[in-house]
Fold this sequence. Notes:
3 helices; mainly alpha
Amino acid sequence: MFLGDLPVVPVAPxxxxxxxxFVGSLGTVLGLILSVLHIVSFFRRSPPIEAExxxxxxxxxxxxxxxxxxxxxxxxxxxxNEAQFRKLDDLTRSVNVGFQEVHRSxxxxxxxxx
Length: 114
């Protein structure tokens, strides 16, 4: 007797088998969805890049503030340099005048006309 000789008996699917296949399929689909969501969350940047780094607009505002502050500092340094050079010139003149007076005094002591 061969397998083909056996009578074919149609089997009606039972409700338990249908329920088992439905729950199994549903669990598989949910597992796949959760796996995809896990992969997406793994590659998603946390915290978002917008929270970690400033925007271009914020950087430009900060750059403008720095430039204006730098200009103020440069102007202030220029004013201080000019004031120091004026003081140095005044000091040089007063030293020169003092040396001239010392030379005149020495000349008078030596009997030379001033």
